[in-house]
Amino acid sequence: MKNKIVKNTLICYSLIIFLFVVIRLLSSDFFGVLGELSTVERYIANASIQIILFLVSVFLFKFLQKSKTKDVLKSYGYHKISWKAVLYSILIGIIVYILNVFVVTFFNSVLASLGYRFSTSSSSGSYPFWLFIVNIICTAVLPGICEETAHRGMLLKGLSRLGTQKAIVISSLLFGLLHMNITQFFYATLIGFFLGYLATLTDNIYPAIIIHFMNNALSVFMSFSSANNLGFENMFSWLTYNLNNNTIIAILFIFVLSALLIIALRWLVKALYKETALKKMYALQEAIFTEYMRTTFKQEVEEITSGQTDNVKRAQDMNRRMEEIIRSQSGEFEEPIEVFQRPYKMDTLSKILLISCFLLTGLVTLMTFVFGVL
User: Residue 277's pLDDT is what?
Assistant: First the structure.
């Protein structure tokens, strides 16, 4: 019974992994089954995959846990968020995108030095605005919601019984491996670490969703700008050209810019924490204090009226009311997810499922590197 949440989490995620592996293999050049799909069919397929990802993460998990949908979403971190927290998350997403450009450039240079051959396919055709909107939905909106629900929601919170740090590491690595592409694994894993830390710090999944959306949306927008000569990408092209001609200036520029961005990122993370977890904690304290004063006053009136006092009963009633308030705020399962409780070992089935997830995704990711090199 004690491994119920971990087991159910890994059952759901194993199904997700199996689905993604099958689709990845069918869309590869070796099988080529999905390669014959038209552009519209490909978009529908991608959207359907994301929706299935969300359905498995929420409704299959809900069925296995025998919980309410509202309680599942609350446990994943779907709590109310202020407009300030949204703004902070948007700014963090912009900084993450810029830093991600540096990370991608670095790891791509490492892969190139190892002999990896990058895809030379280019989209030189027209890029109308309607297609840009479709790409935003399929590449930014749906992945932001569905992938974060699966990883920073179900997987991170479900494995939190193993310890917070282990849950962040495992969910981040699997998030990177789920992309099943060696060129995406490194930066996706790093972003996963950051989003896992942020979701744990804020006890809220919305910042992770917004940051994920911003990173992907900015990438889509840059492609749209490049295809339609809007000029936004010219800044990066001009910067890259000039930096390539002077290595020392390039290193200094990247170092200074990265340092400034990291400083800004730390400030925004602190501000976001104050607007989410800290604000929620103050609200919970206020609710408990208010309930304490109300119940105390009520019992004192009853005791004065009846002419007797029962301090033991008063303490029991207060403890019961406080537990009800905390439970209503957190929306936990019947078997609560306690992030800071003592870790325990997984049962055999959970270990097999977790190892299988790593082996399947790791093997496919390794295949993309080997075939890229060969």
Answer: 86
Among 275, 262, 371, smallest CA distance to 28 is for 371
Sign of CA dihedral 232, 237, 240, 241: negative
Q: Count the Cβ atoms, other than its own, within 10 Å of residue 271.
A: 16
Angle at 199 between CA 196 and CA 200, to 5 degrees: 85
Please name the amino acid found at residue 286.
E
Task: Please name the residues in contact with 312: beta carbons below 8 A apart, sequence gap of 6 or more.
Answer: none
138 pLDDT more than 90:
yes
Q: What's the CA gap between 361 and 374, in Å, rounded?
A: 20
Structural contact between residues 157 and 65, judged by C-beta atoms closer than 8 angstroms: no
Answer yes or no: are the C-beta atoms of 334 and 66 closer than 8 Å: yes
Average pLDDT, the chain: 84
Instruction: Looking at mean pLDDT, say which of 229-243, 263-277, 294-308, 337-351 comes out highest.
Output: 263-277
pTM of the model: 0.85
Domain boundaries, the chain: 4-274+344-373
- Mean pLDDT value across residues 205-220: 97
Contact (CB, 8 A) for 261 and 95: yes
CA 166, CA 156: separation in Å to the nearest integer?
Answer: 9
